[in-house]
Specification:
By secondary structure, the chain is of the alpha/beta class. It is about 45% helix and about 10% strand. Helix 6 links the parallel strand 2 (about 115) and strand 3 (about 140).
Length: about 230
């Protein structure tokens, strides 16, 4: 594929989302919402649940208010879902196919990596450590450490700063519309690998590459780097 970012400087680092991109946790979250809805006898549509993919926790109650009229019910549902989610993630956290090959490839190139996740730090650290991915990352910025969550660019700007590079020197790997919009707004060279939701019209209008899996993302990134666009930090 032709280089979609010809004006960018050489690649010096990479930034990753976590849920649905590296770890197959979005389906676990989906199950948690369904379990909580059944436990509380709340009617919550798939549309409502899928609309929260990649969403920061601070925006969840506002989103659910479009579907559920009672703020008390929403608060109880959120708490119940969180309880189910923690129980479902006590065991091993499943990888998304291709993530180890991608991380090992970047490590071999000497490119430092960071995580930019909307998940709060205690849960993010638990998941990354449980999945064996924590050692791959030189920096981590979590959802409770930003003022303006995705799709705002703040989390990507902070992740790039933590790596000591310009955001335009970063590859960004994302699965959600909120995330890929944030990476693009920060100036990163973003690749979208959709998980539970297809790219929206707004996302597609940004003109970023959309690929079906992480192996395809690695091949695309390798093509960019082969054009002389990489320097180790």
């Amino acid at each position: 594929m032709h280089n979609a970012y010809p004006a960018h400087p050489p690649v010096r680092a990479a930034i990753f989302d976590m849920d649905g991109l590296m770890l197959d946790t979005e389906r676990i979250a989906l199950a948690a919402w369904e379990l909580a809805s059944a436990e509380l006898a709340v009617q919550l549509s798939q549309e409502a649940i899928l609309g929260m993919v990649g969403m920061h926790s601070s925006k969840v109650s506002g989103h659910l208010a479009h579907y559920l009229p009672d703020a008390g019910v929403i608060a109880e549902l959120v708490a119940c879902t969180h309880r189910h989610y923690l129980a479902l993630t006590e065991g091993p956290i499943p990888h998304k196919a291709g993530i180890l090959a991608l991380l090992d490839w970047l490590k071999a190139l000497g490119l430092p990596c960071a995580v930019a996740t909307s998940t709060r730090r205690p849960i993010a650290e638990h998941h990354l450590q449980a999945a064996g991915l924590w050692p791959y990352f030189a920096a981590t910025v979590c959802g409770n450490e930003v003022t303006h969550p995705k799709p705002a660019p703040e989390i990507y700007l902070k992740a790039a700063a933590a790596l000591g590079v310009d955001p335009r020197e970063c590859l960004a790997f994302e699965d959600s519309n909120f995330g890929v919009q944030a990476a693009h707004a920060a100036g990163c060279r973003a690749i979208m690998i959709p998980d539970l939701r297809a790219p929206s019209a707004d996302t597609l209008a940004l003109g970023m590459p959309v690929v079906s899996n992480l192996d395809a993302a690695r091949q695309l990134a390798a093509g960019w780097l082969a054009q002389g666009q990489t320097t180790a930090a």
